[in-house]
Write a structure and sequence with these properties.
Layout lengths: L36 E5 L4 H12 L7 E4 L27 H8 L11 E4 L4 E4 L2 H10 L18 H16 L1 H6 L4 H21 L14 H17 L14 H11 L2 H4 L4 H11 L19
Parallel strand pairs: 1-2
Antiparallel strand pairs: 1-3, 3-4
Helix pairs in contact: 1-3, 1-7, 4-6, 4-7
Length: 300
């Protein structure tokens, strides 16, 4: 895996920005409509996993289509080899890179998931993983299934946004800063931050709350889960976040399993895809491509 410009001179990993950040919203050039937008996602990727969980939690499976990419990337990036004839059924593309370059022929960054294709204008609208789940929760509200949870309640949005920014820096992106660091100081700085965040989450759950913001499931729980579920299986060893495991945090471990018990979380969690993607694709960290056996963890 080539990170190129995303590694700073001091060895820190600095994630590339999102190229496509148009909004799907009423009154704009990309209004929300059932069947118009198509999501591209990987079951291995935590950023894409968020979009899949929220799509299912809100009952949007028939409103927003999805194509799952192969967890193993080659030199051209994410492939559609899980689809019939190794082609995306919506666009006919063999690689996700074709959609990026069709939308911007000058694009030179990594081809990332999640991203959303507009079937009307025939271009990518967004690869903004920060925004996509919020779009499902707000712009697509008219198509939410009866009884779907309000993951982003208006009265708590400022609180949720602030919390999510802290969570991203300390945990969601923090594990990548540890795993992709190319200097000891950059690695140690990131690891200390990761475990300070995990410690704080463990303490936050100490008052008996079911979820991060109380008794109701929110966007923050989705964002925490997609890192927690990968922690012991990948980040602990592969990214060298080895101070403690998730199972060593009694409250966090119980919380993660509580989320896993919810069908939208469980149905979109694929440990085989997760392990094969990280250990086979990221040869800058694991040059042999050997996928480890384990860990022996019971999520049920």
């Amino acid at each position: 895996m080539k990170l190129g410009k995303e590694i700073a001179e001091d060895g820190r990993f600095v994630r590339q920005g999102n190229r496509f950040t148009d909004r799907i919203e009423d009154g704009g050039p990309y209004p929300p409509e059932p069947g118009r937008y198509h999501l591209y996602a990987s079951l291995a990727c935590p950023w894409a996993h968020r979009s899949l969980i929220v799509r299912e939690l809100l009952g949007l499976q028939d409103v927003i289509g999805v194509t799952i990419v192969d967890p193993i990337r080659d030199e051209k990036g994410w492939r559609f080899t899980l689809s019939p004839d190794d082609r995306d059924p919506v666009t006919g593309a063999a690689y996700l890179s074709e959609l990026y370059l069709a939308s911007d022929p000058t694009y030179e960054g990594r081809y990332t998931v999640p991203c959303v294709w507009d079937t009307v204008t025939k271009r990518l609208v967004s690869n903004d993983y920060f925004q996509l789940t919020l779009t499902w929760e707000t712009a697509f509200r008219p198509w939410h299934a009866p009884g779907a949870p309000d993951l982003y309640p208006k009265q708590r949005r400022a609180e949720i946004d602030e919390f999510n920014a802290w969570l991203h820096d300390g945990l969601n992106n923090g594990v990548y800063q540890a795993g992709f660091a190319t200097s000891q100081p950059a690695y140690e700085e990131a690891v200390v931050k990761v475990f300070a965040t995990l410690d704080a989450l463990e303490e936050r759950l100490g008052d008996g709350r079911a979820y991060l913001h109380g008794d109701a499931l929110t966007e923050s729980d989705v964002r925490a889960y997609t890192t927690l579920v990968r922690f012991d299986v990948v980040y602990h060893s592969h990214f060298k976040c080895m101070l403690r495991r998730l199972v060593d945090y009694p409250r966090l471990w119980a919380y993660a399993r509580r989320l896993y018990a919810i069908p939208a979380f469980r149905n979109t969690t694929d440990f085989d895809h997760i392990k094969r993607h990280y250990y086979v694709t990221q040869t800058n960290i694991n040059p042999t491509g050997i996928v480890p056996i384990g860990p022996a963890v019971d999520w049920d």
